[in-house]
Each structure stands twice: as C-alpha cells, then as structure tokens.
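Feature request, filed as a ticket because there's no other form

It would be nice if the structure record came with a short human-readable summary line next to the tokens. Right now we just get the raw output. Example of a typical job, pasted below so the devs can see what we mean:
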Amino acid sequence: MGHMIEIESPDGKFAAYRADPMHAARRPAVIVLQEIFGVNAVMRGVCDDLAAKGFLAICPDLFWRIEPGVDITDKSDAEWKKAFDLMNRFDPDTGIIDIQRTIDQVRRDRICNGHVGAVGYCLGGLLAYLTACRTDCEASVGYYGVNIAKYADEAKTIKGQLMLHIAGKDQFVDAEAQKAMHAALDPLPNVTLHDYPERDHAFARIGGDHYDEADAATANARTLQFLSAHLQG
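Raw output as currently delivered:
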C-alpha cells in the first residue's frame, strides 16, 4: 500500500514511509512516530492500517541524522543492542524539529485536508507527547511513552488534544514516573490518560513478547475514535 518519500528540511532531506487512503476526497493525516527499531515492518503496518481507515499516514525516519534507513526487529539480542544504542544517541529536541517539518510538508499535501495528528510508540510515545507540547499538531496519541515524566513541566504548553496509553507494569516506566505523569496531566481538560494496569511495555506491538490482543484492541479503538473526532475538516 505504501512507498517511500522524502521530507525537506534545512538540514537535508530524510526519508519517510507513506501510505495513502483509498478515498479520493481529501483526508486528515497522521504522523506515525517510530519505536527504537526504525521505520520497520511494524511501523509500516501501522501506516497501512491507518490508510485503510481513511487517513494519509506518514512515518518519518527520525534516526536519519544518526543512521538513515534503520529497519530492524525485536527478535534478536544484536538488534536490541543496536536499538538501545540508537535511542541513547537520539536527540528528542532535534527529532521534534524533524516532526514539525514533516507536519508542515504533509499539511500542504494535495491529499491532506489540512488537519494533522500523530501517533507514537515507545520512543515515539515520548515524541507524541512532545509533539503535543511543541508543535501545531492538532491531536497526538502516545503508547507507553518513555521518559515523559522528565518533561512534565511542558504539559502547560499543550494547545491541541493529547491521549496517552499507559502500561501499568511497564518495565521502562516505573510507578513513580506514572504517578508524576498523572499529576501533571490529569488536571488538563485537553488530555486523556488511559491506564492498562496488567500490561507491560509494548503491549500493542503485534508479535511482541508482551502483546495483549484484548487491551491492544481497546487502545487502538480509543485511538481511532480520538483521531477521527479531532481531525475532521
């Protein structure tokens, strides 16, 4: 369904996976924000699914400044080692600049109706939160975002809508961090948090060790309803 395109930025061009909706009418766009494994089959599958549901879906290669074209899985120790190395070298501040460039370009696209949202997973879950804080994206969704509590003081800058899916037993986001997220975000009328008390990190990654079909379906249904509600023309 999809193909690779280029995003223009002052620092150079970077690649993105694009999946177009079947409908001829102009449609809202969703920027898909990658896990630590790059623009891999899982992220491309998310784009394809969103396109099948009527969105223009774009997944930018946010590791391009470190290593363009990363496409690995969670199935081997070597790939996990590489993924964590990439995450540790990745600068979220620069990543958000690239996300805004992607939003700008997609919003001008002939297929886009001018409304742009975002959905991210793991590292992309953090980036979805920061996208809500720092860009003009209208609706952002983060799945089991890591290190969000570190940026809790930015919550007051959120102008659009934000939804976060929180895994109660997330091995990368402890109870204290989850409490801090709720303290900062629960009072905000434009933010919705959903807790999944028995789930671990990446519970929505099909084929992953912690995938849970029921809670993944619940989270995905909430995401679709949220994006549909806030991105219509």
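Something like this underneath would help us a lot:
The chain has one domain: 2-230.
Helices lie at 41-52, 77-89, 92-107, 123-134, 175-185, 213-230.
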